[in-house]
Request: fold
Amino acid sequence: MTSERSRASQRAGRHRTGLASLAARVVESLGGRYSVELGIDVDANEDEIERWALAATLFGARISATIAERTFAILEQAGVRSIADAGRRDVGTLIELLDAGGLLARGAGVVGLRELAAAAQIDARDLEAGLVRLSLAHGRRIRDCPGGRNCTLIIPTS
Reply:
């Protein structure tokens, strides 16, 4: 009985190691947090959290990440760095800014995630974003993906 438990424990350890490797490859290949790419340090202070709230609102819209990033950059250039800043702008100006970013012209907790990220020695927020990116990259082709280590969207590490 003890040896059966030991073998089961070893198999579970190998499985976790394989998943950790795969998690690290997802983030390495597809990227992590959008906040980092946008130059937002959410751990720094309240102003950075406000910036991320604005960006997250864009990323929550039914638009591509590229449009969200471009629109965020245009808003920042115009001095709109928080949702409160946007609320102080007149509607016409906001519409112009959102349209310039492409937002208006083109239509409008995984269990164990933290543990898996820790095993892969990556930030759980990066893993979450990488998985979102993986899902978006697959789009409707998800059924054609062989999955796991054979996924063509994940570049194997050397």
Remarks:
- The CA atoms of residues 24 and 121 lie 8 Å apart.
- Confidence is low (pLDDT under 50) at residues 106-111.
